[in-house]
């Protein structure tokens, strides 16, 4: 399979080589006139990678229904196989973010070796105390780390510690914690006490982190709790991360904010405070829609990257965000969505690299609002496809990943190799 896909990619790229050379040269000339070295941009894009969430390769769903696709992964080894296809075709996704218990397996060292053989490593590991597992002693119906019952909190802490242990075996360096804790009715929960209980539990988890690990706290405004959530916004997340210590940082999931919130400014605040853990990229129209990254608001994604590129440019101390996708693919082939989303994230990064930082600084200092915003628009409106395509072709990846993927008939083969099962672990956080 691996070899045949490589052969297919080579044939696919061969046809595109001539036009790409011409497009790249033309864009290079245009950028040179703007004082931008296209090869320097290309090299930085080539060094950029983001993690695929293991749950993203399965078909997602909503509260109402899930419509399974053909050839879905049945277990974590199938998921690694699908993630490898995404990386082989795009070259943009060298790591996988696992979720426990959905990805539990009997041999972690075999899993690690299987992933490494495919060129994949393991990014942050995700715990789950937002749903009950069969045989679990205490229910999370009314919360986990902030539950009123001490035994339930202890069970949730223990699960996170187990996730750290699994992550160590896989080479992960971070634990991502999102809790569904909160309330559905005014008066149901004592806000301050619930937050204190969350902090107390989180301290116990924090104490178990290896020295070179980080703890990513993911906030979310609502769902499944629809009146209040314990870690509802970046303020609560920042407060918790600051209380816990330097290894705790705030993870920004683009879909976890109120409509129209200025996410790029939140990102800049967290960067300034040394508390930006990283991202769960996706897009939304109304709420936590988990749509494909950049599919609705590509300018917002660009503006987030504008902050990130500025921080790197200004060499902000300790700036080292983790990049992950977190989406629900309800009506598309998950592999196709993951590939196009990874490319979309790369695109935003490449566009942000085109911003003339010196000119922007000068416009800001001079309070020239129009010039400043035009500098951003100019970068965003540049078609950077030739750069992205060149990065892929140079690395032996497909010039057009979706076209090559469809030609490979991978999904059709998986539909035969992987008999459908009634339910596969899945969900969106
Ligand atoms: Mn998320």
How would you describe this protein?
By secondary structure, this protein is of the alpha/beta class. It has one domain (48-353): TIM Barrel. Helix content is 48%, strand content 9%. It is built from 15 helices and eleven strands. The protein has helices spanning 2-33, 38-46, 76-90, 108-117, 150-170, 191-206, 234-244, 263-272, 298-313, 334-353, 357-365, 369-380, 385-394, 401-408, 410-417; strands spanning 51-53, 95-97, 121-122, 125-126, 174-177, 182-183, 214-218, 228-229, 248-253, 276-281, 322-325. The strands form three sheets. Strands 4-5-7-9-10-11 form a six-stranded parallel β-sheet. Helix 8 (263-272) links the parallel strand 9 (248-253) and strand 10. Helix 2 crosses helix 13 and helix 5 (150-170) packs parallel to helix 6 (191-206). The model has no long low-confidence stretch (mean pLDDT 96). It binds manganese (II) ion. Manganese (II) ion is lined by residues 218, 253, 280, 326, 429.
